[in-house]
């Protein structure tokens, strides 16, 4: 990293370069960062950044760990969060500072969950996420066209669990993705909510690419099963078997899935979970990584997570449209300005069917009150 002659502190109102990063701390705007790395995710949260600059003048006091901050790429806000670390250093002739931070939702990942009375009752994913986020002043939003899901009848909080762990489970139960938006809010939404104006095209905007095709996590058959033990041989059994197949796995590879007895509809739920296993494992068997020569698509919009992007590469792909799982915006003196995208088929993001019922409500209904 070389000395940066263009460091601007408190440059509010100045024209912003679309390929530059602005860090706003306490109303002060700081630009001129020579090393930039900003990562946005569709699978999990928070988003994160690592930026650095060097100067011949002392610069260690421009930011402090713990301060709330906003990160802009050009005019686009991408992260609202906190500075986790400021790391000043240097040589006899230079001063260097590295700044690392994450979005507001970091407190849901790092800290233990708080919930009144320690028990969740009759609440949907949006209500549960909002209540867990409230102690940390984090907003929760439901994406356009997304539904908050069914209400969870009852669920006891396990002390020591983080809010993020609980939120990801209830989001999956509702069939939603949970990740962070530019305002630092938690977003609950569906897969592939938007579409990019252009794509990844070999020979046009691709600097590096790779496609990871794998078969080691796929199975030809997933057999759902449950068997009852009747030692007296005088009662009918309750055996259950159902098979889901992946037609694209050529050789015999078997996986058993035991009946989820705590679900309201144990057999139906277990079948749906087997279908999910087949689809998700197929989706995640192809992971595309591509380094693009711009932070933005043809419309000037930043590449964003959970966006559908058309992909044209000289490789075998399961579909021409893939979903962005993660994007990292980089700029350095060595590599220039690039965006690194990790993409997978839509099926890779379909949330896992889970049951949050501590016991089967069907069993509760079947129990007659004592006389």
CATH superfamily of the largest domain: Baseplate protein-like domain - beta roll fold
Silhouette: globular
Number of E-state strands: 23
Largest sheet: 15 strands, mixed
Order of helices and strands: EEEEEEEEHEHEEHEEEEEEEEHEEEEH
**Can you tell me the CATH topology of the largest domain?**
Phage tail proteins - horseshoe like beta roll fold
> Mean pLDDT, nearest integer?
86
What is the top-level CATH class of the largest domain? Mainly Beta
Count of folded domains: 4
In the CATH classification, which architecture of the largest domain applies? Roll
User: Would you identify the regions where 5 or more consecutive residues have pLDDT less than 50?
Assistant: 358-371
Beta fraction of the residues?
Answer: 35-45%
Helix and strand composition category: mainly beta
CA-atom Rg in angstroms: 25 Å
Overall helicity: 10-25%
List the helices and strands and how they pair.
Blueprint: E1 8-9, E2 21-25, E3 28-31, E4 35-41, E5 48-55, E6 68-73, E7 76-90, E8 95-103, H1 106-110, E9 119-123, H2 125-133, E10 140-142, E11 152-156, H3 163-173, E12 177-180, E13 186-189, E14 194-195, E15 200-201, E16 206-213, E17 221-226, E18 240-245, E19 254-258, H4 266-283, E20 286-292, E21 307-312, E22 321-332, E23 336-344, H5 361-366
Parallel strand pairs: 10-13, 14-21, 15-21, 17-19
Antiparallel strand pairs: 1-3, 2-3, 2-6, 4-5, 4-22, 5-8, 6-7, 7-8, 9-11, 12-13, 16-20, 17-18, 20-23, 21-22, 22-23
Helix pairs in contact: 2-3
